[in-house]
Write a structure and sequence with these properties.
single chain, 10 strands, about 190 residues, Jelly Rolls, 4 helices, three-stranded antiparallel beta sheet, alpha+beta
Length: about 190
């Protein structure tokens, strides 16, 4: 198994993402998971917003075979066509207090995504059960999350990289602070 550092620095990943965007792509951040996130359905635009829109993607890499009940990733095919749910348009910061209270964030965004899905009931969730080394790449608007963990001692080791394409400006929507590309890869 490759180390998360080697995966994050993989020229192959950014060559593929660059081909999809039609311009050079760079990583902005990564997340590494030992267990399933059990994260509510969301779009990445609530965390990362490119300007112009459409120039960020998530790259999910399975670091082990994923088994049912481990908190596997789910996603809604076609949901990337839906409008983005943004912090700026809902008048709420990602974290609404200095102590890291996510209550207001969760109270606003989870219902907003549920309403978006209810209004587009033709969208059906799919579960991603990859083998070690499999990769899933999604556009910033794709609604996705982590299934509940049913087997508590089962790991779901994975890594997510968020990549932006040139010439996008990188913003962390929750703060309005611009981010930066990591050009020291490959």
């Amino acid at each position: 198994m490759n180390s998360p550092n080697a995966i994050y620095s993989s020229k192959l990943i950014y060559d593929v993402v660059s081909d999809l965007f039609g311009c050079q792509a760079f990583p902005c951040q990564s997340l590494t998971f030992i267990n399933g996130s059990t994260q509510d359905a969301h779009q990445d635009t609530i965390h990362l917003t490119p300007f112009p829109r459409g120039l960020v993607c998530g790259v999910w890499v399975a670091l082990e075979d994923v088994v049912p009940g481990s908190g596997e990733l789910f996603y809604y095919p076609g949901s990337y066509r839906l409008p983005a749910v943004l912090c700026s348009s809902h008048g709420v910061p990602k974290v609404d207090s200095e102590d890291g209270d996510y209550n207001k964030f969760g109270a606003v965004f989870t219902p907003a995504i549920k309403k978006l899905l209810a209004d587009n009931a033709y969208l059906c969730p799919q579960t991603f059960l990859p083998r070690a080394g499999d990769v899933l790449i999604w556009q910033e608007n794709l609604i996705h999350g982590g299934s509940p963990r049913k087997i508590m001692d089962q790991t779901r080791m994975s890594m997510v990289i968020h990549a932006f394409a040139e010439p996008a400006l990188v913003y962390y929507d929750s703060t309005g602070i611009s981010g930066k590309r990591d050009v020291n890869v490959g």
